[in-house]
Amino acid sequence: MKETMPNCARCPIKPDERICKQEGGKHPGNCPTVIRADLAAEVLKEYTRVENAEFAKQASLQERDGYSNRDLGYAKVRPTKPRIEEIIDFIGKMGYRKIGMAFCMGLRKEAQAVEGLFSSRGLEMVSAICKVGRASKEHIGLTAADHVGLCDFETMCNPILQAEVLNKENTEFNVLLGLCVGHDSLFLKYADAPCTVLAVKDRATGHNPLAAIYTLDSYYRALK
Ligand code: SF4
Fold it and tell me: Do residues 159 and 68 both lie within one domain?
């Protein structure tokens, strides 16, 4: 079947030879760098908007700062920082002072540690747990049979309220910690401030979703 829609994940070209890495490089027929060239030019204008320009620049400087040994050449660079440190650095680069955190009750210990760390660096913290508001799962049409605990009342995760609680405090930047699949989507849909993710929820792997991807040919082969 001939592919017509962009699908970089299936690109057959060696990374260093791709047109998205070098002028005149190779590309497949459905390459978005080629067939969406007009769109690419249009999108570049977005980076000149005041709300994006500094953010995009600092994000790329953060990428740069994630490596050491750059003077030895690209093949010799090494990673330098865990994500939590990158987030702290990025907050500093952007000059943010008021930080929101939306977290899962299952990661409350981790949330407490992150809150303490950020606070110790002088940041003003606002945080909201997934169960905030104590609304019943009945509100989204669930019954006892759908409750994790099979009990009569179960508090629903309320990512829209998490976002609105942070919005009310005018947080400048939000950090997501352990929100479930789908709940994270709703939080991102409603949050006013730009967001980043410290960790996603993955109950089975200790919140390391790539563990299942790395073992897709072995222990998780049944997924294929
Ligand atoms: S942009 Fe083109 S060359 Fe680059 S990964 Fe996608 S398909 Fe391949």
Answer: no
pLDDT in tens, 73-123: 999 999 999 999 999 999 999 999 999 999 999 999 999 999 999 999 999
Q: Position 33: which residue type?
A: T
Atom of ligand 1 nearest to the CA of 28: 7
> Where does residue 147 rank: exposed (0-12), middle (13-18), buried (19+ CB within 10 A)?
middle
Domain range spanning residue 108?
Answer: 82-224
Q: Cα–Cα distance between 155 and 136 in angstroms, integer?
A: 5
Global pTM reads: 0.94
User: What residues contact residue 185 under an 8 Å CB cut-off, 6+ apart?
Assistant: none
- Is the domain of 153 the same as that of 69? no
Residue with CA at minimum distance from ligand 1 atom 7: 31
**CA 190 – CA 134 distance, rounded (Å):** 19
Q: How far is the CA of 33 from the centre of ligand 1 (A)?
A: 6
**Is 28 within a domain?**
no
- Is the CB of 209 within 6 Å of ligand 1? no
